[in-house]
Amino acid sequence: MSISLSQTVLVTGGAGFIGANFIHHWLSDPNRKAINLDKLTYAGNLDNLAGLDASDRLEFVRADIGDGSAVQSLLERHRPRAILNFAAESHVDRSISGPEEFIQTNIVGTFRLLQTALRFFRDLAEDEKKQFRFLHVSTDEVYGSLHSGDRPFTEKHPFEPNSPYSASKASSDHLVRAFCQTYGLPVLTTNCSNNYGPYQFPEKLIPLVIHNAINEKALPIYGDGQNVRDWLFVADHCEAIATVLEKGVVGETYNVGGWNEMANIDVVHTICDLLDQERPRADGRSYREQITFVKDRPGHDRRYAIDATKIARELGWKPKETFQTGIAKTVRWYLSNEDWVSRVTSGAYREWSEKQYGSQT
Ligand code: NAD
Ligand code: TYD
Question: 294: number of CA atoms within 13 Å, CB side?
Fold first, then answer.
């Protein structure tokens, strides 16, 4: 008789933007369960899981990914089929003003999580070992910056991280790979482009612009606004992660992207135009008038672009949303969830935003 692990997954960082979206996605199948292990930093918000709190298919544990005994006891109690590591410090600007936390969580924390996972994995029966996966959620920023005309990043592109955030994520990716090569831990890694959608903390470009616009604040654009990002709607990213978990080949990395390269100024113009239709300004003028060019971010990567051919060809994943459909959904979500936004902005975010922008925002 074969022994099976449970249909539970351990999600780290599940109170954050992408982790929470993933938990909603995962639990949409009534046969699935999840444990959410999250330290609840400024970016962790249990409001993101509203509607699921009463579910007996989701358990929340407040802990650090580096806390070996907390993680080990969860693994032993639930015997999950996978650990999905979303937990990270994720904001580039914060990594510039205070890199220490990024080293602690993204590098040391991931290392300790890998050690705990390996201990659990080694004690599994052979059948269970075949099922178990450690899926590490990473970013395209590990590859560095492209010039216009360069080919998009493939999985073979060298790592050339430029910010403390991307350097810490690159380090974690290397550790994940090493635990597979050296110790045989069955890992999968995804490197995804910029996400947007519901529950994103309004320190990142898209929710910040929506929030500032309707609150009559400046829309700060760094530098000349010509930096390019490759935007992916978060539900598409969640679907990609679930696909890699089911079908990915152990030890492989998969780039995930939306084929949606856009300059920041064009992203902001699109949001302003949607808001002009959905929530026109009282004075009848365009939200575009609130755009303010501000000092550039140090070491600001010029362009990211993902070549998502491998995951499409080998695993059959493709994004469902275009930027136009995804951004319209996103703007509407923020307009209909102002309670969520105001609970976020009345907290630690406000202190951060004052420190970052002074009274400008
Ligand atoms: P986020 O900042 O919104 O959420 C991070 C979550 O991790 C928070 O809930 C926080 O409380 C938790 N956390 C932080 N440190 C922790 C620790 N030491 N132990 C336990 N929990 C901890 O981040 P996000 O945007 O949801 O990103 C999730 C993952 O996806 C990250 O690994 C990030 O690098 C990666 N990623 C993000 C994007 C993007 O555009 N946001 C794109 C590609 C990859
Ligand atoms: P961000 O959402 O912080 O993601 P990342 O730095 O990980 O790509 O920023 C997206 C782009 O928008 C990036 O080029 C920086 C720029 N940006 C602004 O111009 N103004 C802002 O207020 C913010 C937060 C970002």
Answer: 16
Closest ligand 2 atom, residue 221 Cα:
19
pLDDT digits (tens, 9 = 90+) for 232-260: 999 999 999 999 999 999 999 999 998 99
Both tokens of 189, joined, read 């890694």
- Rounded average pLDDT over 166-184: 98
This prediction has a pTM of: 0.96
Helix axes 110-122, 164-183, angle to 10 degrees: 20
List pLDDT tens digits, range 108-126.
999 999 999 999 999 999 9
The rounded Å distance from CA 13 to ligand 1 centre is 6
Q: Cα angle at 20 between 142 and 322, to 5 degrees?
A: 65
d(CA 153, CA 307): 5
Find the residues whose C-beta lies inside 6 A of ligand 2: 92, 194, 204-205, 208, 220-222, 227, 229, 264, 297
Q: How far is CA 361 from the centre of its chain?
A: 25
Q: State residue 357's pLDDT score.
A: 45
Identify the band that residue 347 occupies on the pLDDT scale cut at 50, 70 and 90.
Answer: confident
Total number of residues shown for the chain: 361
Structure tokens at 18: 């992408």
Q: Residue 111 belongs to what H/E stretch? A: helix 110-122
Ligand approaching nearest to the C-alpha of 43: 1
- DSSP per-residue letters across 215-275: TT--EEEETTS--EEE-EEHHHHHHHHHHHHHHPPTT-EEEE--S-EEEHHHHHHHHHHHH
- What mean pLDDT is reported for the chain? 94
Active-site residue, 296 included: no
For residue 30 the two structure tokens come to: 């009534």
Nearest CA residue ID for atom 14, ligand 2 = 227
User: How deeply is 28 buried, as exposed, middle or buried, from its count of CB atoms within 10 A (0-12, 13-18, 19+)?
Assistant: exposed
CATH number of 8-196+232-257+300-320: 3.40.50.720
